[in-house]
Amino acid sequence: MAGVAYFSGPLVFESLETELEAVRDLVELHAVLGRAAFFGLVFLAIPTMFAIFRELEDEPPSCWLNGILIAGTALLSYLLLWAGHYGGAIRRPEIANALSWLFPIL
Asked: Per residue in 8-24, pLDDT tens?
């Protein structure tokens, strides 16, 4: 699902460029956070595959590998929520400051 959003985002922006000109900074921040989360998920797939292969070999994954997966999943989940909040704020400007303590505008 993230891949579809990643590759269709620029096309949507081009088609709605005049409508979104007022919130251009928010659109760019949404794109940067979404891109960071997308590539983070791609990179997190590598240690995830290591953990799966270790389980298939009947060896438990090491503690550091579990820590990387838990911390990476938590961080990337937050980034996805942050990007999603900005995506909602683009279409509904009234919610832009709704959770400013959790999702600060950079």
From this structure: 566 666 656 666 666 77
Q: Say whether pTM exceeds 0.85.
A: no
Contacts 24+ apart (CB under 8 A), 21-29: 23/89, 23/90, 23/93, 26/86, 26/89, 26/90, 26/96, 26/105, 27/90, 29/86, 29/105, 29/106
The tens digit of pLDDT for each residue in 50-63 reads 999 999 999 988 89
